[in-house]
Each structure stands twice: as C-alpha cells, then as structure tokens.
Amino acid sequence: MEIREIFAQNLKAARKAKGISQEELAHRAGIDRTYVGALERCRYAVSIDVADRLAVVLETEVWRLLQPKD
C-alpha cells in the first residue's frame, strides 16, 4: 500500500473516531473542505505542514497518520 493510501485511511479513521465532519476538520485546520475529501480519496499528496495541522486538530501525532495498520 502506498503512503498516500495509508494517510488517507488513517485520516478518515481518526476523523470519524473524533466524530467530526470533513467540513469541521477543514475549518479547524484552516483548509478547504474539498481538500480534506480529496486527501481521504488519495487525490492529492499532503504537505507536511497540512499533515501537522490535521494531526493537531485530531489530537494525534503526524507519524500515527502515516503508520500502516497491521
């Protein structure tokens, strides 16, 4: 599995675990909602800065969003 797919799956799972919508996550992270959706569908590669902002909102560490599930 590619790193973008791993990030996409982990981002979506973390967002759902927090019970927030793509729109709310985007708003809190200061990015566009369509960008969050595109990240969750592997349409774009995320920058390290945006990954950090998303991790902060999701109250996790960036490396956890990149960690493959066993």
From TrEMBL:
The HTH cro/C1-type domain covers 11-65
* Cleaved signal peptide residues: none
| Cross-referenced Gene3D superfamilies | lambda repressor-like DNA-binding domains
Q: Which organism is it from?
A: Martelella endophytica
Q: What PROSITE patterns does this protein map onto? A: HTH_CROC1
Q: What is this protein identified as?
A: XRE family transcriptional regulator
Q: Which InterPro entries does the protein's record reference?
A: Cro/C1-type_HTH, Lambda_DNA-bd_dom_sf
Gene Ontology MF terms: DNA binding
Pfam families membership: HTH_3 (PF01381)
Out of the domains of life, which is the source? Bacteria
